[in-house]
């Protein structure tokens, strides 16, 4: 018994010596919130010393890994501080923010979500208004009329295909092509019963097809698609050749596939899309860094690399590196009222039930 | 021990276990948001119990959990008998060998088997097509059978560990007597050995059934693609898909599962009602006896080898290949150009990955130690002290185990998000969650050992003048040490591989490795995923195997 406890003590000491980075609560999580650095301070220039002493910024949101990495790299280069992030789907991000804010824990500085969900956060008092300087960089149609967020990018939804596995000329040309039996067992799909954006997209398809919707979706289900909870997983599977066809996000052609990737996408008119809007916390734990971060994020310095990753950017002058993405007729996939959302979810569960 | 110290231990354990449970119960009756309960209401229960989907999900979940539990106990018992009771080659090494696959986190087992057996490009299917020259697909992990198979692998190891200890501790004179009465080895196995390990087998069945009901990693990685949804998928929907999350509904689904697991717990308690019937460590000395199987020992060796190949070799080789190859295609095409340690370099050069490893190791070692020490003090009191409500205490301590980790995480969040001490947003909330959830493992491990020690040993020591402390130190602890260390090492591995609760409770700066696995998987970063997985497995084995060897746990098993 003595030997055992001796071993445990040694192991415990070694572990403690490696440092418990999270053992002490972050200073920002306890106590009363610090006064938020007004985003208007961005026009006065960042307080470099304060940024250094704050040590980091924390972002929550739906950006992909490569986008967070780019942001982190730029902040490190310019200010010498990292951006840590919590990446999740919309539900996970909203839930986390709601939980923490309700408990008075202010652990995040910035958030990226669709504008409609930013409205929800703003109505709870979780967001601060962005400075006119920052907002003014974007055309009015992308700005929140109340001043809390600005849409900086679009996330178009698309049929993806692996360019190595699908011969040229045999790519799907329409959504109806997905019911072709040659794709049986070959389709990766973001789960239209679990993923909020895809429930909405499929509902749009359902409404467009009207009386033929049942027939269409049953034929699609008969092709035995494989579901994934996240669009990102669909894209990685298609890019890596696990599936020749996928229903995911258009921008992943480049942001996941990379410049030597193996994906293409099917153009649609209109092209269904969701979007990404940027907002700042009303009580950022790192107010000076948050302010500098906002200024950097909403500038060509960050958004151009996002465009280079394939994202359609709403900041004038920045184009998507996916040439076919420029000039498309994008149309927002509408939000669904809770009752309608549940009805749609139930409908698709029934259709795709095994 | 039955005085203040014992009482304090029980009180602490009860608070740990009942606080989040109470939060869940209150939350399920609530209309308010997380941490704010609002008015009492039954609307969540009405919504759940009046939905046909609830019963469909329940049926699928029960079938899945039962299949996993039965398969694991049967195979685990067979392996335990082979390792402990026969002269199969390498039997004495099987204890630690079988432990190796358990060091592979469930998320990685799922990933490995997806890479091996997905219907389009799984490595085994690609190999089969190359060999046969046709477009065959002999394996499909995205199926109900695939789910059961992947989930049963770690469950079998768990069953083996507990059942092997029970078999080892049995007095072989009972089997010898059976042999002398003319019974052959199989008849003796059936009529003597198995009935004696029945409490251990039944309790494993109950535990594995509960684990199957509440598991999320296999349903998330394998079930969703297969379009097979279980209860925990619904909980995940309520907490991470619905906007805003509906934690009250998640808690309500959790309470539904609790009813079933209370029944299982009652059955478990009844099977232990007469411990003297199963006391096999007595004042009489005995030597373990191995059955000589003759040429049949090569068959039993083959059985063990196949299970080891499926449970350990294949997944480990897959993860190793993924960690070394530049891309998955090169593994499929068996081309070696560019293979190397670049992914390991990526991981070791990434401060977030290094921090996650550090956090995971710290939580595992501290948490397992705290849980086992608490378990020992609590188990000694509940198995030895005659006080009213002892059965109720055991029951209550089992409650958190009955909840899915996802649901219990909601209870932990509810309980600690507004706690006066700054627990939320730190590693401590993870530690509290882990210990709360997995304390029953420690209790089961220690109490199983304590039950097999006949009181006459302690009574003899007391009669000879030993104090309670001396009895503990000189008699009880040495005899329970194998169970204690087996429990500790299991908990270290469990904490290192814990996924569902970590997904809900982590925050920036407090990442653990399993959260990073999920992140890498969804981002398609298979190489770093494989590298990080291999590092974690090596770390797990480096922590656990030397301790087990030092404490001769596997000598007890083998």
Descriptive key words:
A: D-Maltodextrin-Binding Protein, domain 2; D-Maltodextrin-Binding Protein, domain 2; eleven-stranded mixed β-sheet; 11 strands; 17% strand; B: 558 residues; mainly alpha; MetI-like fold; 27 helices
Query: How does CATH name the architecture of the largest domain in chain A?
Result: 3-Layer(aba) Sandwich
Quaternary structure of the protein = heterodimer
Cα-based radius of gyration of chain A, to the nearest Å = 23 Å
Q: Termini distance of chain B?
A: 33 Å
Radius of gyration of chain B: 24 Å
- The share of residues in extended strands of chain A comes to 15-25%
| Number of spatially distinct domains of chain B | 1
Largest interface: A-B, 73 and 72 residues
Give me the CATH superfamily of chain B.
MetI-like
Q: Summarize the amount of helix of chain B as a percent range.
A: over 70%
Helix and strand run of chain A: HHEHEHEHEHEEHHEHEHEEHHEH
Number of domains of chain A: 2
**Count of helical segments of chain B?**
27
CATH topology of chain B: MetI-like fold
Given as residue ranges, the uncertain stretches of chain B (5+ residues, pLDDT < 50) are 281-285
Q: What's the CATH class label of the largest domain in chain A?
A: Alpha Beta
- Which stretches of chain A are low in confidence, meaning pLDDT under 50 for 5 or more residues running? 12-43
Percentage of β-strand residues of chain B: under 5%
Report on this model:
The complex is a heterodimer of chains A (354) and B (558). Chain A has 354 residues and is α/β, with parallel strands linked by helices. In chain A, 38% of the residues lie in helices and 17% in strands. Chain A folds into two domains: 39-154 and 274-325, D-Maltodextrin-Binding Protein, domain 2; 156-270 and 329-352, 3-Layer(aba) Sandwich (D-Maltodextrin-Binding Protein, domain 2), CATH 3.40.190. In chain A, strands 1, 2, 3, 4, 5, 6, 7, 8, 9, 10 and 11 form an eleven-stranded mixed beta sheet that branches. Chain A is built from 13 helices and eleven strands. Chain B is mainly α and 558 residues long. Chain B has a single domain (4-557), classed as MetI-like fold, CATH 1.10.3720. Helices cover 74% and strands 0% of the residues of chain B. The longest helix of chain B is centred in the N-terminal third of the chain and has 34 residues, at 52-85. Chain B is globular and about 70 Å long. At the A-B interface, α1, β2, α4, β7 and α9 of A face α12, α18, α23, α25 and α26 of B.
């Amino acid at each position: 018994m003595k030997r055992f406890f001796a071993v445990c003590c040694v192991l415990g000491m070694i572990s403690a010596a490696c440092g418990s980075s999270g053992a002490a609560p972050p200073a920002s999580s306890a106590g009363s919130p610090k006064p938020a650095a007004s985003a208007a301070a961005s026009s006065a220039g960042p307080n470099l010393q304060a940024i250094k002493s704050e040590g980091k910024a924390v972002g929550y949101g739906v950006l992909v890994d490569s986008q967070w990495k780019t942001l982190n790299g730029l902040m490190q280069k310019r200010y010498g501080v990292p951006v840590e992030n919590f990446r999740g789907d919309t539900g996970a991000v909203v839930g986390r923010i709601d939980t923490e804010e309700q408990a008075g824990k202010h652990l995040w500085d910035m958030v990226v979500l669709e504008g409609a969900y930013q409205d929800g956060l703003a109505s709870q008092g979780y967001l601060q208004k962005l400075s006119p300087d920052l907002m003014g960089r974007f055309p009015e149609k992308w700005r929140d009329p109340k001043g809390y967020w600005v849409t900086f990018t679009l996330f178009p939804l698309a049929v993806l295909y692996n360019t190595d596995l699908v011969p040229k000329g045999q790519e799907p040309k329409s959504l109806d092509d997905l019911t072709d039996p040659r794709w049986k067992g070959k389709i990766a799909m973001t789960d239209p019963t679990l993923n909020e954006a895809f429930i909405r997209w499929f509902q749009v398809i359902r409404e467009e097809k009207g009386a033929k919707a049942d027939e269409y979706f049953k034929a699609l289900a008969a092709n035995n698609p494989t579901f994934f909870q996240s669009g990102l997983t669909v894209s990685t599977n298609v890019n890596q050749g696990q599936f020749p066809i996928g229903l995911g996000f258009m921008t992943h052609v480049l942001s996941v596939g990379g410049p030597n990737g193996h994906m293409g996408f099917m153009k649609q008119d209109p092209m269904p899309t969701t979007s990404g809007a940027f907002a700042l916390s009303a009580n950022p734990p790192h107010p000076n860094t948050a302010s500098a971060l906002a200024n950097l994020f909403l500038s060509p310095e960050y958004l151009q690399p996002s465009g280079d990753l394939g994202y359609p950017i709403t900041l004038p002058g920045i184009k998507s590196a996916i040439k076919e993405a420029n000039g498309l007729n994008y149309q927002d996939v509408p939000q669904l009222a809770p009752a309608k959302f549940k009805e749609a979810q139930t409908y698709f569960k029934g259709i795709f039930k095994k | 021990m039955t005085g203040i110290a014992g009482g304090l231990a029980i009180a602490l354990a009860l608070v740990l276990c009942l606080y989040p449970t109470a939060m869940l119960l209150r939350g399920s009756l609530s209309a308010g948001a997380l941490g704010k309960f609002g008015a009492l209401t039954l609307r969540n229960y009405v919504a759940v119990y009046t939905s046909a989907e609830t019963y469909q999900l329940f049926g699928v979940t029960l079938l899945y959990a039962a299949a996993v539990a039965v398969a694991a106990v049967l195979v685990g018992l067979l392996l335990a008998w082979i390792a402990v009771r026969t002269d199969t080659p390498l039997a004495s090494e099987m204890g630690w060998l079988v432990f190796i696959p358990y060091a592979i986190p469930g998320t990685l087992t799922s990933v490995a088997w997806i890479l091996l057996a997905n219907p389009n490009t799984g490595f085994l299917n690609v190999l089969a097509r190359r060999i046969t020259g046709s477009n065959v697909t002999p394996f499909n992990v995205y199926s109900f059978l695939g789910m059961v198979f992947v989930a049963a692998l770690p469950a079998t190891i768990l069953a083996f560990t507990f059942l092997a200890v029970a078999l080892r501790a049995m007095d072989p004179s009972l089997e010898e007597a059976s042999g002398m009465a003319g019974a052959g080895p199989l008849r003796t196995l059936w009529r003597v050995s198995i009935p004696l390990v029945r409490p251990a087998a039944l309790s494993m069945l109950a535990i594995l059934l509960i684990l199957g009901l509440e598991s999320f990693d296999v349903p998330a990685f394998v079930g969703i693609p297969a379009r097979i949804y279980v209860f925990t998928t619904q909980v995940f929907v309520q907490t991470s898909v619905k906007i805003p999350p509906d934690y009250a509904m998640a808690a309500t689904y959790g309470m539904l599962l609790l009813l079933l697991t209370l029944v299982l717990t009652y059955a478990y308690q009844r099977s232990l009602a007469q411990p003297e019937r199963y006391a096999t460590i007595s004042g009489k000395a005995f030597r373990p006896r191995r059955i000589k199987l003759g040429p049949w020992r090569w068959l039993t060796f083959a059985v063990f080898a196949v299970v080891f190949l499926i449970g350990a070799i294949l997944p480990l080789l897959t993860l190793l290949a993924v960690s070394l190859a530049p891309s998955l295609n090169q593994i499929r095409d068996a081309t070696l150009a560019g293979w190397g340690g670049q992914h390991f370099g990526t991981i070791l050069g990434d401060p977030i990955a290094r921090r996650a490893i550090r956090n995971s190791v710290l939580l595992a070692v501290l948490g397992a130690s705290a849980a086992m020490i608490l378990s020992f003090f609590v188990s000694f009191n509940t198995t030895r002290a005659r006080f009213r409500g002892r059965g109720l205490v055991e029951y209550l301590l089992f409650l958190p185990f009955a909840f899915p980790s996802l649901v219990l995480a909601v209870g932990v969040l509810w309980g600690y998000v507004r706690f006066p001490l700054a627990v939320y947003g730190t590693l401590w909330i993870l530690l509290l969650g882990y210990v709360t959830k997995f304390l029953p493992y420690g209790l089961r491990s220690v109490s199983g050992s304590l039950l097999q020690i006949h009181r006459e040993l302690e009574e003899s020591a007391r009669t000879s003048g030993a104090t309670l402390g001396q009895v503990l130190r000189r008699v009880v602890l040495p005899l329970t040490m194998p169970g204690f260390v087996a429990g500790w090492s299991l908990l270290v591995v469990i904490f290192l591989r814990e996924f569902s609760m970590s997904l809900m409770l982590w925050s920036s700066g407090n990442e653990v490795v399993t959260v990073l696995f999920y992140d890498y998987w969804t981002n398609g970063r298979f190489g770093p995923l494989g590298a990080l997985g291999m590092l974690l497995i090596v770390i797990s084995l480096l922590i656990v195997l030397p301790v087990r060897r030092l404490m001769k746990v596997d000598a007890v098993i083998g």
